[in-house]
Amino acid sequence: MKPRHSILLVEDEEESAEMLANFLEMNDYEVLVAHEGNRALELIEQHAGEIHLAILDIMVPNVNGKEICRHIRKHPVLHDIPVIFLTAKDEEQDEIEGLELGADDYIPKPASLNLVKAHVESLLRRQSPQKANWLQYGDTYLDTDAKELYVENEKIDLTSTEYTLIELFYKNPKRVYTRQEILEHITEEDRFVFDRTVDVHVKNLRLKMEDAGEIIKTYRGIGYGLNREIVKV
Fold first, then answer.
1. What is the C-alpha separation between 121 and 151, in angstroms, rounded?
2. Domain covering 134-231 in this structure, CATH number
């Protein structure tokens, strides 16, 4: 069975949102629904690694659809997902502005459920079949394909050893590693040096991550691992 695609639907008209969400779910999509902009941003941060496409109404309260689209296009995980504007605003200038913001499609309301579904399927077919492998804890994201770490929307420049360390922790969030175990996972040149080398790498990694660095915890008398109070594993 092929994996289900997940869609972010932002629509302030609750009846319309429920109808479209139910229709998409009947067609084997998972749907995350927000009726206003702040909730949409929360869902983006909570489920960034799962969302494959976004359907946005422009005129939603608090943070409008254009701002949400702009946020998606700057997001380290979601920047390349398809975005559809589904809105009653059918002025040509609104369509142009939406496309300039990075939207892939623009469907004026009212639109039939089957029409929306057809546009969704068309855009998802164009997507790369392999979505990046992301690990997310809080506001941090690890792209294990590109070997890159992001804190919020900012890429953190890491050395090869620092990346190897953070990947080890993120892929095994329940484990606490001794310094010797960590040394066995970092570069060859470091394997036979003193285990305090690990302390230096961890310190540098935390400094680069700034406040988010507290996600790496020192377990006194044992070693290092992810802070379970933060990642809730």
1. 32
2. 1.10.10.10
Which of 167, 177, 188 shows the shortest CA–CA distance to 223? Answer: 177
**97: burial class by Cβ within 10 Å (0-12, 13-18, 19+)?**
middle
Determine contact, residues 203/178, Cβ cutoff 8 Å. no
Q: What's the confidence (pLDDT) of residue 16? A: 92
In this prediction the pTM is 0.67
Q: Read off the pLDDT band of 188 (50, 70, 90).
A: low
Residue type at position 39: R
Burial (CB < 10 A; 0-12, 13-18, 19+), residue 18, is middle
- Exposed, middle or buried, 148 (CB in 10 Å: 0-12/13-18/19+)? middle
For 6-126, CATH number out of 3.40.50.2300, 3.40.1440.60, 1.20.81.30, 2.10.109.10 equals 3.40.50.2300
